Amino acid sequence: MQFLLLLASMASMALAAPPGWSADTAKFYSGVSKEIRNARNSNRQQPQCDFTRAVLPSTDKPLPQVPEGQKLLHVAIGRGTQNYTCTSPNSKERLTKPKATGALATLYSATCLAATYPYLLSLLPNIALQLTNPPYSPIRNPSSDPSTTFGPNAMPVIGYHYFSGEGVPIFDLLADGHAAVEKIEGVDAPKGAMAGVGEHVHGAVPWLFLAGVEGNEGKAKSVYRVNTAGGTAPGSCEEVEDGKEAVVEYAAEYWFFG
């Protein structure tokens, strides 16, 4: 019953949605309607928010398996920007290709969706990328501010993603501490992944496996970035205004294990 009510709530949001949906948003609400019909016409038990049922997405070239002994903590939709520079940090000379300087993203809870309706979850990065990027404005108690929810299923904030001054990726999971990680392996996003929006349509950033570094204080010890949309840098610095950063919007699923 809990998830039938959840789906009904999503459907009511669809009725109030403005015209001009993206194809992905239409697929999402079509999927919601299908699940409501199935739930009403079936005597089977409704799905439960059982984290053990969630299956990490994979590609033809898979990322490393989840380390033994770790379990799923959270699944989140990350929405923000990948940031690049065309200026050498040492010589201040102009680079020929943009160099990554980090990312800023807000993380929205999608764990129960991953465990119950993975197809709907898979549509959210594309939908998120086509919605206005929320301001990156970390607060310690986002549940007190209803305006911090995001997307067609009103996902609440569970944390933030940024890079430290030393260039270390940080995932601030508000309830589970700051996870400091490093890239272990990456694979290209599948063909057909959303390439971007606006003036930056250069491709989807790779899928990644990241592992905790020494001094990691958070509960999350492994992080997977999958189902990416957008975020890839321009092909050359000729496309970036002199003295400016290339700020490229992206979205992705993040899976946290610990």
From TrEMBL:
Organism of origin: Helicocarpus griseus UAMH5409
Alphabetized InterPro entries for the sequence: DUF2990, DUF3455
This protein's UniProt keywords: Signal
Protein name (record): Malate dehydrogenase
Superkingdom of origin organism: Eukaryota
Signal peptide segment: 1-16
Record bears the keyword Signal: yes
Pfam families, per database record: DUF2990, DUF3455
Record keyword Signal present: yes
